[in-house]
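Q: What does the predicted 3D structure of Tetratricopeptide repeat protein look like?
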Amino acid sequence: MKLQPKLTINLCLLLFLITSTIAVYGQRKKKDANYYFNEALIREKVSPGNPYVDSIFRSCIKLYSKAIKLNPRFCGAYANRAWLYSELKDYKNELYDLTQAIRYCAPAEKLMLRELRAGTYYRLGQYKNSIRDYNQTIPFDKNQANLYSGRAMCYWKLGEKDKACIDYKKALGLDPKVAEDKEFLDCN
């Protein structure tokens, strides 16, 4: 079977476009931090319910690490990698990444990141550091019950029952559902 000249040209053009795209994509992969960031985001999306979640998360961590290596000030990569470390219960690495994200992110994002870091400090038993982050966050968002209840739990763990109860009552006033989460506070 002999191909028509016009069809042959079209096939050659198509092959050229495909190979050019692959070559450009390969170069971008080597040079662009956003490539690794986006690749990790895609993999994270497919992982819920997957029996290999840990390995998928670890491969995402490697991709975020490559993005950070190419762009050491990549706030989003630090923040997303911190979330993955949290899911894997690797709180020391989560803490490091949240601290780096706070360092490089815009001021508006820093509040949320400080709140996340306060929770990480709590899980690591670093209650005073957790309180410090809550103290820096609360003045900017005084209507968040979870900030007060988080700080109350830290005060409680440190034996500062009066401060814990004050924060618990503020949290309860902002959100009555806080009463359902009352694990160890007894502020009657």
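A (community wiki): The structure tokens above were generated from the sequence. The chain has nine helices and no strands. The chain has a mean pLDDT of 80.
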